[in-house]
Amino acid sequence: MTAHVAGKAPRTAPAAPAREKGRAGTWVRLVLLLLFVLVFLIPVYVLLVTSFKPLSEADPAQAWNLPKVWTTEAWSVAWEKLEPGIVNSFLLAIPGSLISAALGSLNGYVLSKWRFPGADVLFTLFLFGMFIPYQGVMIPLVQLMVDLGDALGVQLYGGIPGLVLAHVVYGIPICTLIFRNYYVTIPDELIEASRVDGAGMLRTLWSIVLPVSGPAFAVVIIWQFTSMWNDFLFAVFLTGPTSWPTTVMLNNIAGAVTTPYSQQMAAAILASIPTMVVYVLLGRFFMRGLMAGALKG
Amino acid sequence: MTRVRRWLPGLLLVSPSIILIAVFVYGLLGWNFKLAMTDKHNEIAEIPGRFVGLENFTGIWGEERWGLSVRHSIVFTLVFVAGALVLGWLLAFLMEKGIRAEGGFRTVYLFPMAVSFIATGVVWRWLMNSATGEHAVGLNRLFHYIGLDFLQWQWFRDPDWGMAAMAIPAVWQMSGYIMALFLAGFRGVPDELREAARVDGCGEWGVYRHVVLPMLRPVTLSALIILGHISLKVFDLVVAVSGKQIITDVPATFMWTAVYDSHDPAKGATIASYIVLSVVIFVVPYLIWNARKGNRS
């Protein structure tokens, strides 16, 4: 059921490239790759340089120049405007990714080690949930959140809890997929031995499976954190001014014609720092999530 | 009976997720289709829509804006999918035999995946500013610096091919991911196979043509599916780069305006249904193919 690519993170190539046609080929490749690095980093250069410019240097003729005077003016203004959104995003992404991981772990465990009739069909039905464009559920989802919120007495529509709920629910497929593929690698004999010893399903999960689940939790938490942090579609349909996460606030700030470029760029960087930090520090796990998501996108 | 007792606890443990997916994915998709088949063209709760069959689905083709957004989506998809596929493949090809500082290259090419389209859209809107001549900023200014003034154009504001420009940031953002997929694919080709081909008298190109490329077909298919479904629902990027302008309208932004500006739920649901259908057409066969393949192996 797993995609051929899933879980197969690119291993590093053999250290000594076998039978290279001379050094020239390697050099050509290295130069080309470095050129692409330059092209890929153009937006980063623009973001940084522009964000440190004072307003007086906002002149098309100097657009690509380094600032003559470096200033963090734009940064402090951008921070002031963006801060509530960043707080909301943390309130969304931290609990959201933890709940997602817990659910994914339970589902993945059952679908790999405690299977019931029809488990495969169910898994395929889950997977379809990863591919649907969320536009297809958005209008009724808003209505459902309103109704559900009224019934439960919680503010779901227009509040952070509703956004958490949406992300957790639509994250179930990918989280289940990652955990299931991870748990498949645990030998069935271990589970069977635990069963013979009289341990039930939950006991086995707790004492055999969870202790070795660390990497899968890291992958799922990072994946969900990143997608919740970066999401715009759910946020724009489900939240209001007091619960807008970073992306919506950033779009409002950057979309206003009155906001100077320096502030727009500083805000864009600020909005990206948390996920960039995760990416740089835990890139290995991020990578694995991506590979599992080869079934997603 | 003992068999049932063996699998029942597992089913119970996943049942919350089953219910959530059933309601939020399948239930809401159905609700959306039902709404699309009514004449509920207002938001007044007291006036329920009447069933009108496929009237909305056919009627929308009479709207100029719908035709435009479909055309835009097609241009965007072609340029984005081809661009990301070719660039991702090329990067992987350049790296597959191992290169100095490979980890560093991978980190650079992949980092845009960790950032939201909303944040990168800010800088791309600046880069693709349509001003030319004296007022040129961004890439147009850069072309001026290097004496390539004739390359200056309107970018995403170009009435005919603006959506091709809109695809550039998307290629920038996604090609690192495609590179990672292809790199895993390249590295998945057993060395013995390549060696065997060489022994049989294949040159390096022959090895690629007859051994490596055929084995990359499944990865290419996955990449196509991923890029295609991202492309058909593209929303954040368009909003971040150009806002709600008709000139860059795609179905997802059209739906957004139908819901929030025209206050027409039935029309929004109709557009959403079309987005879902366009993705389902190729994702469902892919999932079924994937499930069958999984069962065989």
TrEMBL record, chain A:
Residues 86-282 form the ABC transmembrane type-1 domain. It is a multi-pass membrane protein. The chain crosses the membrane at residues 27-48, 86-109, 121-142, 162-183, 204-226, 232-254, 266-287. SUPFAM superfamilies: MetI-like. InterPro entries: MetI-like, MetI-like_sf. Its main location: membrane. It holds the Pfam family BPD_transp_1. GO terms for cellular component: plasma membrane. Gene3D superfamilies: MetI-like. The keyword Heme does not apply. GO terms for biological process: transmembrane transport. It is found in: Cell membrane; Membrane. Belongs to the binding-protein-dependent transport system permease family. PANTHER family: ABC TRANSPORTER PERMEASE PROTEIN (PTHR43879), GLUCOSE IMPORT SYSTEM PERMEASE PROTEIN GLCU (PTHR43879:SF1). This is Carbohydrate ABC transporter permease.
From TrEMBL, chain B:
PROSITE patterns: ABC_TM1 (PS50928). It is found in: Cell membrane. InterPro entries: MetI-like, MetI-like_sf, UgpAE/MalFG_permease. GO terms for cellular component: plasma membrane. It comes from the Bacteria. Residues 70-288 form the ABC transmembrane type-1 domain. It is a multi-pass membrane protein. One of its GO terms (biological process) is transmembrane transport. Keywords: Cell membrane, Membrane, Transmembrane, Transmembrane helix, Transport. The chain crosses the membrane at residues 7-29, 74-95, 107-127, 161-186, 207-230, 271-289. Belongs to the binding-protein-dependent transport system permease family. This is Sugar ABC transporter permease. It comes from Microbispora triticiradicis.
